[in-house]
Design goal:
The chain has 87 residues and is an all-beta fold. The protein has one domain. Helix content is 0%, strand content 53%. It is elongated, with a radius of gyration of 15 Å. The protein starts with a strand and ends with a strand.
């Protein structure tokens, strides 16, 4: 059975200069808590797909909105496995 998942991220900069993200997900696609290793103006997030791999027929949609003066860095935790399948 293929996975269908979506993740919507909306980055904006507050009046105090901190970049913040709001998010909404459906299915097994998530974003971990925000980190600020470069300071409050740059939001770092890790996108994860907990099932651990992608099979033919899976659909993963990611939508990112970056508002004025917002800075973000998106990453994944490591290599993603792709498995052969009908799809």
């Amino acid at each position: 059975m293929p996975w269908h998942a979506s993740l919507k991220l909306d980055y904006r900069r507050d009046d105090d200069g901190r970049c913040r993200v709001t998010h909404h997900h459906e299915g097994p696609l998530r974003v971990l808590r925000s980190l600020y290793p470069e300071g409050p103006g740059v939001c770092h997030n890790v996108v994860i797909h907990p099932p651990g791999g992608i099979v033919g027929g899976d659909r993963l949609d990611i939508s990112v909105a970056l508002r004025a003066r917002a800075h973000a860095l998106l990453s994944t935790p490591g290599a993603t496995r792709f498995y052969d399948g009908d799809g």
